[in-house]
TrEMBL record, chains A, B:
Belongs to the peptidase S10 family. One of its GO terms (molecular function) is serine-type carboxypeptidase activity. It holds the Pfam family Peptidase_S10. Keywords: Carboxypeptidase, Glycoprotein, Hydrolase, Protease, Secreted, Signal. It is an enzyme of class 3 (hydrolase). This is Carboxypeptidase. Residues 1-27 form the signal peptide. PROSITE patterns: CARBOXYPEPT_SER_HIS, CARBOXYPEPT_SER_SER. The keyword Lyase does not apply. Its EC number is 3.4.16.-. It is found in: Secreted. GO terms for cellular component: extracellular region; vacuole. PANTHER family: CARBOXYPEPTIDASE, SERINE PROTEASE FAMILY S10 SERINE CARBOXYPEPTIDASE. It comes from Arachis hypogaea (Peanut).
Amino acid sequence: MKNTFALCSYLLLLVTLLGLVFSNCKANQVDNLDELINSRSSENAPKTLSWTKEDAYIPKYYHTSSIGPSPSQEEQKLADKITALPGQPYYGSNFDQYAGYVTVDPNVGRDLFYYFVESPANSSQYNPLVLWLNGVANVLFLESPAGVGFSYTQNDSQTFFPTSGDKAAAKDAYVFLVNWLDRFPEYKDREIYITGESYAGHYVPQLAYTIVVNNLFRQIANQSVINLQGIAIGNPWVDDFTGVKGLFDYLWTHALNSDQTHELIETYCDFKPHQPISSICINATRNAFAEKGPIDSYNIYAPLCHDTSLKPSQTGSVYNFDPCSDVYVQAYLNRPEVQEALHAKPTQWSHCSGDVDSRVSVTATRYALNVLKLPIVTPWYPWYSENEIGGYAVQYKGLVFATVRGAGHMVPSWQPERAFNLILAFLSGYPSPPGSPK
Amino acid sequence: MKNTFALCSYLLLLVTLLGLVFSNCKANQVDNLDELINSRSSENAPKTLSWTKEDAYIPKYYHTSSIGPSPSQEEQKLADKITALPGQPYYGSNFDQYAGYVTVDPNVGRDLFYYFVESPANSSQYNPLVLWLNGVANVLFLESPAGVGFSYTQNDSQTFFPTSGDKAAAKDAYVFLVNWLDRFPEYKDREIYITGESYAGHYVPQLAYTIVVNNLFRQIANQSVINLQGIAIGNPWVDDFTGVKGLFDYLWTHALNSDQTHELIETYCDFKPHQPISSICINATRNAFAEKGPIDSYNIYAPLCHDTSLKPSQTGSVYNFDPCSDVYVQAYLNRPEVQEALHAKPTQWSHCSGDVDSRVSVTATRYALNVLKLPIVTPWYPWYSENEIGGYAVQYKGLVFATVRGAGHMVPSWQPERAFNLILAFLSGYPSPPGSPK
């Protein structure tokens, strides 16, 4: 399928039933939501809705190979290969891993960090490439924008924050991808899928649009293009109005808020952009967060992390999800020998990306979908995974909405089989796992 | 607290966050709901809302001891004692169990079956008595009305169905209780709590009202009264309007129904009693059940029972809830030696009580509570159990509404610690487990 793309023919929204989501920063939630709500009444409210082709077109960028006296792509790729990660089982793994940096702007020293997991050696050389934004088949994990995780920019003023710099973040990710494909040329013609979750509800479609626009220009110039096949976003933050309204409706309908607080929000908050917000509304939203108390917003039914010490009984199996795993991950990624093995520059790695810090509910996603008014191809139906209803799906024209039943925000952690079967269907071009009895 | 009662000072509604509930019959749900909806538009719609003192007053009933040549109460109690249940661990249990029949109408041969678990021998002789209706501290499980479980009536036309015979069921339960207390006289002055779930939303308050009314008459006549202290109902079916509306709102807000079906229900169903129901509404409610597909309505996130054979790896621990446990229970209770050990007449025991077969959601309970317009004493707050939020509570004047976070219908099966701490608080007179940090 070289030189063709079918963007939007399988736009798969993976949203969870349970997971209230807020980006990937666990900072104070009330403050961040206030900030978000207030930001929309300020004069500098982010405007990310309108993109022109000119916004997305990148006429010129530095190929990594064209930057001064640097090693060849082949040498760089070899250097990126991970020999072994500290703590990895001694018998190794049956797949190759790479990690390192791709420069997106040598002038200000902006490099994006990636982690790449290749399919097992004996699997097909035609397996597609999946790019995962926002955090973690052949899966290429990209920490984006610069300033997030191990990705950095030497010039601080050039740090790109998502609320002000969605377009810059998309351009950086595009340049990263072109340069990364130079380093891994065997993937240049491979089918590529772009995925992500939470604020990637912005990143993913914006990067896809950037690819589509640049592909158009490059086709005219008879240049090679990126073989983009589809995008998938999970629990996506799509827009502020549906996101915030959906969040508070979710809290009430899941019995986490009182009738009184919900009624105040219904009456006094309209969540429309650029409207002044009443103090009654602000107080009511504060109450909404206070009332639900300290629960895991990623999975409202999950236990909290009370004891961060590693227990000997822990198997580490994904089937026994440990609510403290975030803490272990953060500790692990900050060990110097781990950073060295990953070819990352020594830094303080943290879960917090500092961007839009609020939760994304299935309710919000449905409100956002309704705004699109897409024609329905296949109405609401349950899809199956291992004999159980794995979730529900609606096939719209050019887009599939799918839920994962009983999953928190980190879908593969809570429902590994359902997540695997759903992503497999997505990569195979099915709207949902095939063969589901109806 | 002899000769006093404080009914309604601790009316505790235990409702789950997750459990869609329908009575205790797992028959075809769509048919039953249709039946319920249609029944309200018929001329013979059940009228259970108005009770007068005359309805509840029972001037004369047969004491078991006054029925012909029967064994003495002491002899009957001894006969009811369960020596051992088949499959019970060989070292026995540290508590006593009794089971048997109490006659409520010797003329038509109507006997109610009970199963009674006494607190461990070394615990206080002042431990209260808890009566559990609808199925299973000192806990007295009563299968009511006659025709349910092992309870029976010899005259079939005298079988009391709940939709037509709520008052008769309450009178039978009252007569049962008086006669049972004759058989277990050490409990006559003990504090008594009446509990139950699902359709017990009718049974429990109606029995409580019957007790209160008869206590009043008996106090005037200087006779002993039943020491009723409080009632608790879990996932109660309170009334049709809030129950059915709450059910469909729950299905939609928990992403089990499509937007389209929900909108049809919102527009074309008003669920008001004695209104003709449009065919659009009936079709839409059919769709609502079809769309959610075959999931466990008792816990929408739980697995289904696929393999009913007992696996050797099963520990039987309540912490590893087995979705097939209903099947084992049914098989166990139909073993002749078990029926014999329980002093039950040989019969085909089944989960199905044949009464109102629809689910009760937390949404429905809140709608029902709002109808009461009770003043709030303590507004919405989280209550704690073992360091986690166990659920939320609102203390109204004379009534507490409490949720159990992450529990399905059978609350103790899914959240044993939370259920235990909540019922302990209820019996201690607290609105929720004390010492919860706020």
